[in-house]
Design a protein that fits this description.
By secondary structure, this protein is of the alpha+beta class. Among the domains are: 6-147, Beta Polymerase, domain 2 (2-Layer Sandwich); 154-239, Orthogonal Bundle (Hydrophobic Seed Protein); 419-467, no CATH class. 52% of the residues lie in helices and 12% in strands. The chain contains 24 helices and 15 strands. It has helices at 12-24, 33-39, 56-66, 115-120, 147-153, 162-168, 171-183, 189-198, 207-218, 223-233, 235-239, 241-244, 260-272, 278-286, 291-294, 308-322, 329-340, 343-349, 354-364, 368-377, 384-408, 419-426, 432-447, 454-467, and strands spanning 28-31, 47-52, 74-76, 81-86, 89-95, 97-101, 108-112, 130-132, 141-142, 155-156, 186-187, 251-252, 255-256, 296-298, 302-304. The chain has a seven-stranded mixed sheet. Strands 6-7 form a two-stranded antiparallel sheet. Bound molecules: cytidine-5'-triphosphate. Cytidine-5'-triphosphate (CTP) is lined by residues 32-33, 45, 47, 49, 122-123, 127-128, 169, 171-172, 175. The site of cytidine-5'-triphosphate has 13 residues, from strand 2 and helix 7.
Amino acid sequence: MSKQYIQAVQHPVFELITKASVKLGIRSYVIGGFVRDYILERNVPKDIDVVALGSGINLAKEVAKLIPGQTKISVFKNFGTAMIRHQDLEVEFVGARKESYAADSRKPVVEDGSLEDDQNRRDFTINALAISLNEDDYGSLLDPFYGISDLERKLIRTPLDPDITYSDDPLRMMRAIRFASQLNFKIEEESFEAIKRNVHRIEIISNERIIDELHKIILSDVPSEGFKLLYETGLLSKILPELTNLQGIEEKEGQTHKDNFWHTLEVVDNIAKNTDNLWLRWAALLHDIGKAPTKRFDKKIGWTFHTHEFVGSKMVYTLFKRLRMPLNDKMKYVQKLVMMSSRPIVLAQDIVTDSAVRRLIFDAGNDIEDLMILCEADITTKNPRRYKKYSNNFKIVRQKISEVEQRDQVRNFQPPISGEQIMETFNIKPSREIGLIKEAIKEAILEGEIPNQYQDAYDYMLKRGEKLGLTPVNDKK
Ligand code: CTP
């Protein structure tokens, strides 16, 4: 008697699928991520995959008929699938398939198949688990490839020879690593070796699909687990060569620098403990990429990475573009954080002056908190004394930030005096002088010469104007 999972299929939508299947005289099963996550007691996904021994599209149509008011189903004829959105669920229907690859062609010959044929052609044993939705064995688990045992052993394993599974759909190499990272599983040795052999095949996969998996790796609890696997298999140098270029330690005249690749992975793990913001995690991943092209050895000062933040932020654009990631405000945010990633550190090493903090807040705007989170994650020294020193310094910077914030409000700096007002005061037309006066007022505020207030800014404007040879026409303070 197979294991019973009646509890997993309590949602009323399953009952409708059973009814529709009876009507059509076909059998149906829920399969894939839904079953896996139910057994792992993770949040059960809102997308449910149903496999039918018959037409998935017809089954979807029949189910839709049973839902009052449900008229819309999405049919993907080419794939032989159909999808229904019902309440907060997305249910996808597919007919069981058997895929065979003719030796002289890469195109799969898709034929109708049994449930086992269908399970066989799925990516991993843990994703091939199916629960019956049929009246005679409702809730029974069908596990021909020992997926349950792999869930218990925390193992990613393919139902077929891994070379076949990965070659059929090379995205699965990324998926294997993503699941290992997300679920804290191991990839079976044979599978791991097969990924190494098939790495070049990733080239046929669209960037969008690769990035989807990469996002999930970045969002896992310990992202370095996934990145180590990407690195060891050779996938990382294909997808993000900017990162693998950071790997290695060079020595010159007895001086070495740290390995910026492994350092980066530590930073990403650190930040993962403090934020779920995907783009802030991306910033951590990319914060040092400018170090590879800017690395120099200087006889007097040793290893330097001068302007790496600037170069790195330019590289963010090229990287996002190549991977077809959005070139929008998210990209700009990552660029900004990479660009500013050393600012608080430099601050923390010096005496923390108010004006330096004011400039930091002015430049970071609303991203100041994220920037501090990034910089704190960047402390990876193993020397306890230094660790303490750096984190204490950041505490001081934070303290100063909140003091200066309360007093000076420069976070979203709006000039207290407008260009129009300057024109009116001195009765002048749009000209260079207006820009000069505005800039001088801003500088005076940031330097702490005057408070960020109207009256002080007004007086300062008069002074600057006079210096430029301008006379106020009508002094209406
Ligand atoms: N699948 C596959 N090969 C792929 C993608 C998916 O064999 N390249 C199969 C697996 O059986 C998988 C199911 O299709 O469980 C559904 O895929 P998908 O919704 O992408 O992933 P889930 O396993 O549901 O996991 P997640 O929701 O975490 O992405």
